[in-house]
Amino acid sequence: MSxxxxxxxxxxxxxxxxxxxxxxxxxxxxxxxRFAPNPNGPATLGSxxxxxxxxxxxxxxxxxxxxxxxxxxxxxxxxxxxxxNWYLEDCRWLGxxxxxxxxxxxxxxxxxxxxxxLIEKNAAYICFCEKDEFKKYKDSAVACPHREQDIxxxxxxxxxxxxxxxxxxxxxxxxxxxxxHKDPAIxxxxxxxxxxxPHPRPEIRDRYKVWPLLDFESAIxxxxxxxxxxxxxxxxIDSEHRQxxxxxxxxxxxxxxxxxxxxxxxxxGKLSTSSMSKAIKEGKYTGWDDPRLPTLRAMxxxxxxxxxxxKFFIELGVGETDIGLSMENLYAENRKVVDQTSKRFFFTPExxxxxxxxxxxxxxxxxxxxxxxxxxNRLISVAGNxxxxxxxxxxxxxxxxxRLKDLYNIKILKKxxxxxxxxxxxGGIEIVRKKKxxxxxxxxxxxxxxxVLNVTGEEKGIGERGISDxxxxxxxxxxxxxxxxxxxxxxxxxxxxxHK
RNA sequence: GCUCCGAUAGUGUAGCGGCCAAUCAUUUCGGCCUUUCGAGCCGAGGACUCGGGUUCAAAUCCCGAUCGGAGCACCA
Length: 500
Description:
single chain; alpha/beta; Glutamyl-tRNA Synthetase, domain 3; CATH 2.40.240.10; CATH 2.40.240.100; seven-stranded mixed beta sheet; six-stranded mixed beta sheet; disordered N terminus; RNA-binding
């Protein structure tokens, strides 16, 4: 077959190769995609999915990628001034530089204008019902008394609303959909409400009392920006149904949509932006970049690499089912990157003394990276007195033969809770290998104090001298894991744990 | 309660009528290699929610059940 029809064979083989990652889009001309966060906190791993996937599609089809801040709720999900820039930093870090940045709160008057047009089309009305009252109408599919108000009166009421004549919760602008729509979620939804809390942006502050809700703001923006494809969480599926009414009134074409399910990461559980914010204020976390948090700022501080995060989310695809993930998957991706680029060092948490009798004074020369011989070696002078990790010490038995990695073989003589005594034994690694002895790491006692901050707390110990020169770098503590050296001060090093 | 949606190995995915005794990644377990319990290499294990139907043929189509999720906010 390979001789008579090689093409056919290729085709067969090709069909067997699975489609990895993102499915192709329909309508691939002039692709414009957006990611529209509320900047009420920094980007998290969840945001990263939105940033990466939207941006990746835009790149793939030579289109444009827009970041739009949907910051139209000054009260309930109040934006955080710093978060606007944080988002942009994080996008850049992920290699998803936006072609354009839009801030919804800059466009409030424009939304007012479209609202007026809808009123004039008899497609919207001012509703004075109380929340609960309207819910009753909605649930029984009956129009409320304000729905049939004439256009001129509605225009006057709208102006009164803008002029601040109504208190919060006294009036809203609703979009007329269909009170008989079988899904109650779609019936006459609210487009604008009154909020008297000032906006956090200094240039806005108390300029507006009437604020649009997501469905309205997003509907108008998506059209004006020429968005061709929207990819977002499936919690916004009903949004599309609501927004289509606005599109119909204006005769606009709705973008293609794709939705994904909820992502729950086992290690972090349910951490909403607002609950994190609260916990930080209470002092439960040191800040938004606390290593126990799923923010991108925290990931960066721990030494997670942007390319690993990107690869991870692209291969995840865009399924609509809800998924539960373990960070292990992301760690595996990151390990592939950092393993090749990280220097190796020894670090002994909760060190235990090990005294070696008859030890020659010598210099150990472990490699900086086992597969990059040309990186050179660390040089460690050893006199016969070292420290080992408590976890290793606990497993050690008297008379055991073991090897101090890159140093020499020893035989354990005596073990107490505080100190272990051993004697030096000549010979190479083969002896230990042959007897299936352990090879453990060690440090000399005068190394820097190291604190490793991890997802559950912290660990303290002693490390190699060379670690002090690695501030900002991701290194591997051998047999311990990958960490990012966060700061070095005097003889104290703080490291953020990434993963094993 | 009302309206939608989904269900493939431990986890996440591919497949969407015949290439499927089901893909790929990760995880797990062996072995090799290695002065790390890291990486690499080799190998193994592990899944179509259930019940009916349509069809010569179903993971793929239809119906029902079960389970899970989302929306029904003057949040995004």
